Amino acid sequence: MLWPMLAIALGFVGIAVLGVCAVRVFVEAERLGRQVSESTRRISRAAEDLERAATSAAGAVGASAAADRI
To answer: Which chain regions cross the lipid bilayer (predicted)?
Structure first.
């Protein structure tokens, strides 16, 4: 009778350990998702800033070239 009870107890402990690991993986996956979302937002904002800077630089170069022709 000892061995079946020990097997059941070890099975329960094993399932409990797997449950704890699953919860930790879920929490870390959520955290990673938030970090990826934040990084995507920051990259998008940097791309917009770069596009604005490139547009103003191109305008400045165009104005300079037009002034040189006169």
So the answer is: 6-27
Taking the C-alpha atoms of residue 46 and residue 53, their distance in angstroms, rounded to an integer, is: 10
Task: Retrieve residue 66's tokens.
Answer: 């037009």
CB-neighbour burial class of residue 50 (10 A; exposed 0-12, middle 13-18, buried 19+): exposed
- Each domain of the chain, given as residue ranges in start order, spans 27-54
Amino acid at 22: A
pLDDT, tens digit, 9 for 90 and up, residues 28-60: 999 999 999 999 999 999 999 999 999 888 777
The reported pTM is: 0.63
